[in-house]
C-alpha cells in the first residue's frame, strides 16, 4: 500500500515538475470588466488612445453553456474599462435560433477592424453540433455604439466537410490584406475573398514539432509582424494529473509562441519547446479542466502582451519581456 502511494506521488511530482514558471513572464493577472463578471476568451487590438477588447459570454452557463454571445468594450491605455460593455446583435431580427457565437478574434487591416468568430446560425444549440467561421467588419458610430456589417460565412472548398467544427483560424495581415493560418501543423495559410467568403489555399508547410508533448497544436492569437517575421501564440491540451487538479487526471490547456516567415510560404521557423507557464494560469476554480486560452496579442517596444481566457469564465492579461521571449524560441525544421 505504501509502495503504491509512493509510486503515485513520484508520478504526480514528475507532472508538477514539468510545469516550470517561464522566466520571461513579467506578470499575469485577472482582467475584469463591469456588468459581465464571467466574460472569457478575449481578443484585443489597439484602438484610439487605448484598446478595443472583444469577449465571449455564456449568460446561462449553468443551465445551457452552449448559448454564447460576443461583446465589445473599450479599455484605456492601462487596460482599465471605459464605460460599460456592449453585446453585439449578430442574429437577424426574427431569428428563432439562440445565440451561439464563440471565441472572437480582432484584427485591423488598414483602416478597417474585423472580427472573426465561430457560430451556427442555422441550427438550434446542440453539444457537438457543426460550427463555421464568420467574419464581419466592426463599425463604431458617432453615438459610441458598435455594430457589425458585411457579415460573411467563410468556407474552404478544398476541405469540404473536413471539420464538423471550424474554429481557431488565426488571422494576420500580409501586404494590406487579410489572411488566416487555417491550421498549425501543417502550417496551412488561406486567403478569404471578402465578397464571397470563399478561401483560397496559399501554402501548406509541415515542420517537426515532435518535442512538443502537450497535445495537438491549434491556432490562438492573431499573428503580428515583428521585424522580419510574424509572431503568434498557439495552444494545445492534454489530460494529466497536476497539483492544480489535486492529483486528478483532467484536461489541461497549454500554450506557446511561434514565429513564421514574413512571405509565402510562411514557413514556421521557431517555436517554444515547452509551455509558457505561471501558476496564475491554473489558479481558477473549474474542477473539470484547467483552461488557458490566449486569443489576443499586443506588441510594445519592450513587451509582448496577451489576453487570455481562463476556465471558460474568466479573463486574464499576461506581460512578457519581448526580447527574452523571442530569444527563447528555438529553430525548427
Percent strand? over 45%
Average pLDDT rating: 91
How many strand units?
23
Domain unit count:
1
Write down the secondary-structure element order: HEEEEEEEEEEEEEEEEEEEEEEHE
Level-1 CATH class name = Mainly Beta
Structural class category: mainly beta
CATH fold node name? Tachylectin-2, Chain A
Distance between the termini: 47 Å
Calculate Rg over CA atoms: 20 Å
CATH architecture: 5 Propeller
Shape: globular
Characterize this entry briefly.
The chain has 333 residues and is mainly beta. The protein has a single domain, classed as 5 Propeller (Tachylectin-2, Chain A), CATH 2.115.10.20.
Task: Please give a structural write-up.
The chain has helices at residues 2-17, 322-328, and strands at residues 25-31, 40-47, 50-57, 69-75, 81-87, 102-109, 112-119, 132-140, 146-154, 170-174, 177-183, 187-192, 199-205, 218-219, 224-226, 229-241, 249-261, 268-271, 289-290, 292-299, 303-310, 314-321, 330-331. With 333 residues, it is mainly beta. It has a single domain (18-331), classed as Tachylectin-2, Chain A. Strands 14, 15, 16, 17, 18, 19 and 23 form a 7-stranded mixed β-sheet that branches. The protein has a 4-stranded antiparallel β-sheet with strand order 1-22-21-20. Strands 2-3-4-5 form a 4-stranded antiparallel β-sheet, with no helix packed on it. Residues 9-17 have low confidence and may be disordered.
